[in-house]
Amino acid sequence: MPQRSLVSPRVKLWSRVLMCLPALWLVACGKQEQAPEPDRYVRTLVLTSQSAGMKREYAAEVRARTESRLSFRVGGKLLERRVDLGAVVKPGQLLARLDSQDFVLAQDSARAALLAAKVNRDQSGADFKRYIELRDQGFISAAELERRDAAFKAAQAQFDQARAQADVQRNQAQYATLVSDVAGVVTSVDAEPGMVVAAGTPIVRVAHDGPRDIVFSVPEDQIALVRTAASTPGGLSVKLWSDARAEPLPIQLRELAASADPATRTFLAKAELQGGEVRLGQTATVVMSGTQADDAIKLPLSAVVEAQGRASVLLLDPKTMTVQPRTVQVTGAEGNELIVHGLTPGMEVVTAGAHVLTPGQKVKRYKPAGAPAEDARPVVGGQPAAPAASAASQR
Fold first, then answer.
1. DSSP code, position 243
2. Backbone φ/ψ region at 79: left (φ over 0), alpha (ψ -120 to 50), beta
3. What's the confidence (pLDDT) of residue 387?
């Protein structure tokens, strides 16, 4: 009689499962294939040998060629100020007035001293004449006459001194009123009624009627460029903010400060407008054009990235279609473009998509619908043939 197996079918099934677990574990722990990296599309441009024609702009202001800070020649309490900011003044017009009570009293005292000196001089003169007669008659000696002569001369000198002092006090009383000696416009008010001001403290500033200057500040490293542009016809021009659509007006550099401003460390420049009319206080922009920078190229902002704290660009190798970083030096900016150095003609620079790429990564040129296969646009005159588009938006 055959023997019946004591192991149930369920136990046999579990034993087979346990035997297969090591194999499943090895399969699960094995190296899996990585997913292929997605294609990266970039916009590029090819550099040429042409340099970038740079234009620099400076904020400017229209000022009078001559401005006077008017002040009192004596100190005192300011009683009134009769002009405000922007007021038009004429020669001889009263601008402000000090409290002149003390000056009037000093003038009265000087007049009294002058009168006393005059009386003393006249008395000394009359005595001297009588002593001359007495000397002729032999009643006094020559030495006594000489003493009377010296007393008369001293009295005359005291009279002259008192008269000069009276004139000074009269002038001091007149200095208590501030009048304009020129025709112009009040451009600044520096004192208010009730203030006690010292002699020479500015009260108002008056811009004289006459020629106007375009005033702007130049950084120290651009002094030579401004001088060169000033000697070139059309090198310097000005655009008025109030009429941005108008053509720039030519200007001629008239004055350039020899020392820098202690606060801003810039050099003050004044230029004369060649034709056209401007109003006092107008804001403007001075444009310096015609300067060239050797091996300088204009690149879009998106083409320059930061790598290890330095500005760099990604260069595309057309043979391998890979990108490699290249350190550059940024020397300026014009609008949405940067002026960079450190690149040579013939290089192909990634202008869009550089921020998502890594060195040595393979890329493809972005091709818009209907465009030819090669989309590398050369730089013409420092400008790309077409504006760069964002690679992230084109993928």
1. G
2. alpha
3. 41
